[in-house]
Amino acid sequence: MKKLKTKQEDEIYYVGIVQPLEVRRNILETSKELLLFMQRYEKYKEVRNEKRQAVALLKAQMRDLGGMVSDLKAVLPQTALRAEERFLTKMIPPPPLPSSVFMEKTLVEKKVPEPVKTMSDIEKLEVELAEIEGRLKDLT
Hints:
Blueprint: H1 7-10, H2 20-75, H3 85-89, H4 121-139
């Protein structure tokens, strides 16, 4: 079925805008502020991601250290001697052992491959920001 066009649908109304350059400038400035906000948010997301990776790395290192401590306890002889209370508060650190003692197990850093990025979100936002700033300069 064909829809019959009414007279109202055929008429097109145009609305006049007072000071169109000022309205355009306000829209571009608002767009610029929005892009700046989006850039800050992308930087925040990157920092948060780096923090998560650092925490994951520290957890892995703590897990490795716990395994090394348990291996060390297994190697040390069992004794019934315990340190007295007064010595526990003022323990003097023992001299460093030669590295050859622990050469059997070495920590191997796990490298996380970084994803290949063609153009990050921040770079895209910077390009858009540069375009808007160029338009603002043209208006003035």
